[in-house]
Write a structure and sequence with these properties.
The chain is of the alpha/beta class and about 375 residues long. Helices cover about 50% and strands about 15% of the residues. It contains 14 helices and eleven strands. Strands 6, 7, 8, 9, 10 and 11 form a six-stranded mixed sheet that branches. A five-stranded mixed sheet has the order 1-5-4-3-2, sandwiched between helices. The longest helix has about 30 residues.
Length: about 375
């Protein structure tokens, strides 16, 4: 997860007398670079995860400090260091409140600290950690792609992971990540990382195969659920312009099973995209765990079209929506009111369609086996 605020405090608390005075929930934020700033316009060039450093020369009033904070938060910065003792002596309760409410780390170093030395030291550490993170991501990708050669990459990953411990994968997709400009995608990744609280070196975040990937190592089930739920809430609140689908794989033991954990997360995120559900856990998918794990997609499509052929042909001939009506009928357990509401269609029209559907399929959907077969066929038809 990169060089984090926590890492920095480990180094700087004693060496530079650094203190964290607010926004402590952002302790796991990773840092892309340190930026010295005494005015606001520079934030327009932020890519995300920058750690701002100021002497306070341009922000001596509480009002200007509030504007600075909101500007940094909007620019997806990971925190702010204030060099106190000259232009800013004390941090007001109002400033602390803003930082705490936004989980935005606010740190201080005393005036006698030479900022140039501190920035140089921390920047070197960030650069080294960034290079290491890239090597780790490449080794993890090789482990996923070549599970038969996992032992070849274990030595490379051993210093950073408990390779005999548990691994769980979470995939994040917006449906068009591959179409995004590389810089924009990197900025989006930076924003998403800021919402992953309470996970640092027992997790790794990177982009791979049209998704952002979070790999969690030896994270307790309760903690993993809290991380994911908190992330989902923050992403929905702070990034309403994006429809982010989340797929969560099974928690499996041993790095040799990382490829399975990844494949299961891939199945879950694909189902989330198709069904329009924001988050899906592979272990909760029931029979769809099998469907979305089948590699022969042609076989699935053939089976689906064989079962639904009368409705497919009717829809093609009459430009109707009998497939969608059947899916809604089965999903809502036959409730005409629920189907009518979901499809924005008058109940009499729904009743007429259902009657025709039953006649075309020669099926009254009286038992659960029939309902399950046809619902699965509808879902397969939507699978890409």
């Amino acid at each position: 997860m990169g060089f984090t605020i926590e890492d920095m405090m480990t180094v700087a608390e004693e060496k530079y007398s650094m203190k964290m005075v607010a926004g402590k929930k952002g302790w796991s934020n990773s840092i892309s670079w340190l930026i010295m700033m005494e005015e606001l316009t520079i934030t327009k060039n932020f890519s995300g995860k920058e750690l701002a450093v100021t002497t306070g020369l341009g922000f001596m009033t509480e009002d200007s400090q509030e504007k600075l904070l909101y500007s940094l938060i909007d620019a997806n910065a990971c925190g702010l260091i204030i060099n106190t003792g000259c232009y800013i002596n004390e941090i007001s309760p109002a400033i602390i409140k803003i930082c705490d409410e936004n989980d935005f780390p606010l740190l201080t170093v005393p005036w006698d600290i030479y900022l140039a030395d501190m920035i140089k030291d921390l920047s070197i550490r960030i650069f080294i950690q960034g290079s290491t993170d890239e090597q780790i991501a490449n080794a993890l990708i090789k482990t996923i792609e070549n599970p038969e050669n996992t032992s070849a990459y274990q030595k490379e990953l051993l210093p950073y992971f408990d390779v005999d411990g548990t691994f769980q994968v979470m995939l994040l997709s917006t449906g068009n990540l591959d179409e995004m400009d590389t810089v924009d995608r990197k900025r989006l990744g930076y924003r998403l990382q800021l919402y992953l609280n309470n996970i640092t070196h027992n997790g790794h975040f990177f982009y791979y195969d049209s998704c952002f990937v979070l790999i969690m190592n030896d994270v307790l089930k309760k903690d993993a659920e809290e991380i994911i739920e908190e992330f989902e809430k923050k992403a929905a609140r702070k990034m309403p312009e994006y429809r982010i689908n989340i797929g969560i794989g099974s928690c499996l033991k041993d790095i040799a099973n990382l490829y399975l954990a990844y494949q299961r997360a891939k199945s879950a995120v694909r189902m989330a995209e198709i069904s329009g559900t924001r988050r899906i856990n592979f272990d909760d998918m029931g029979i769809f765990r099998l469907l979305f794990s089948v590699t022969d997609k042609l076989l699935l499509r053939e089976m689906s079209r064989d079962i639904l052929r009368p409705l497919i042909e009717y829809d093609e001939k009459h430009a109707a929506n009998y497939i969608g009506t059947l899916e809604s009928y089965l999903k809502n357990n036959g409730s005409i009111q629920a189907i009518s509401s979901e499809m924005f269609t008058h109940r009499n029209t729904i009743i007429y369609r259902i009657k025709n559907i039953k006649a075309l399929l020669k099926c009254d959907f009286e038992n659960q086996e029939e309902k399950t077969e046809y619902y699965i066929a509808c879902m397969i038809l939507k699978m890409r």
